[in-house]
Design brief:
- About 40% of the residues lie in helices and about 30% in strands.
- It has helices at about 1-50, 135-140, 155-185, 190-195, 215-225, 230-235; strands at about 55-60, 70-80, 85-90, 90, 95-100, 105, 115-125, 125-130, 150-155, 200, 240, 250-255, 260-265, 270-275.
- The chain is elongated, with a radius of gyration of 30 Å.
- It starts with a helix and ends with a strand.
């Protein structure tokens, strides 16, 4: 009888210990998966920071009439932001691109070609950014040339510079909205202070130079009527010329049947040229 009691007691103890081990292993397994997921997120965050910074080398400059030029320039990335900061020779391109799996990708849904515009690679211990050069592609070249740009500064040394570019872009957006409203509301004073007068009319060269905000407002409304476009439609999109470009580096452009160029004059944005080139 004593032997039977000992056997039953031993069986109960073994079963209880096994049950406790089995139950305790379940949360550990869940914790392990959660820890692994956190490690992957941490690794991704560290990689984004590692890839961020200033890259320098040959960049592509788009010209009119499907032409391209090449010059030395700087490109800034902050991939830790959402959306990312992507500044190509002074041109802020955050709205149109995103980062994924080591690539910078064009996100417009109406883009028909390969949306990948560049990718990162660790080459001989240094991070480089391979670019897709559209001019070379149009000329029949399939190799990755003229090459890549090399990371020369980390994110810590570039954060302030990136923020300056982002602020400049935001400031110009605000100015462009005010300029547009000034045309709609016939705010002659604002326009006069925002135009480098006298302004040559490159659209109709037979006309005299524009010498006042009122004269500009009257003439531009006439042109928009000829083009059958609204002020809002015309001012919906702009781009900033690359700092590495030979003509109007860093200037802001609105384009269409008539083109406008805005530059900083004594610290303030002004319309400096109007015409129908390109």
């Amino acid at each position: 009888m004593k032997i039977l009691f000992l056997i039953l007691s031993l069986t109960f103890c073994i079963t209880n210990v096994y049950s406790q081990k089995s139950n305790s292993s379940k949360p550990k397994a869940n914790q392990s998966k959660e820890k692994q997921g956190n490690n992957l997120k941490l690794a991704e965050a560290e990689l984004r920071k590692e890839l961020s910074g200033m890259y320098e080398g040959t960049i592509e400059i788009e010209l009119c009439c499907d032409g391209y030029d090449y010059a030395n320039g700087k490109v800034y990335f902050d991939l830790t932001k959402d959306p990312i900061a992507f500044i190509y020779s002074g041109s802020v391109r955050n709205d149109n691109y995103y980062y994924e799996n080591g690539k910078i990708i064009y996100k417009s849904s109406d883009f028909n070609g390969d949306p990948v515009c560049g990718w990162f690679e660790n080459l001989n211990g240094k991070w480089v950014y391979w670019q897709k050069f559209y001019g070379y592609e149009n000329d029949g070249f399939t190799e990755r040339k003229p090459g890549y740009i090399v990371k020369n500064s980390g994110l810590e040394r570039c954060t302030e510079i990136i923020e300056v570019y982002l602020k400049e872009d935001s400031d110009f957006r605000n100015f462009a909205d005010q300029f547009k409203l000034a045309i709609v509301n016939s705010d002659f004073d604002f326009l006069e202070n925002s135009i480098a007068l006298p302004l040559e009319d490159g659209y109709r060269e037979n006309l005299s130079k524009i010498k006042s905000g009122k004269e500009f407002c009257k003439r531009i409304k006439l042109y928009f009527g000829d083009f059958q476009t609204s002020t809002a439609e015309y001012f919906a999109h702009y781009w900033r010329e690359l700092e590495a470009a030979n003509n109007y580096p860093g200037a802001y452009f609105f384009s269409g049947s008539i083109n406008m160029i805005f530059e900083k004059v004594n610290g303030a944005y002004k319309l400096t040229r109007m015409g129908s080139w390109g």
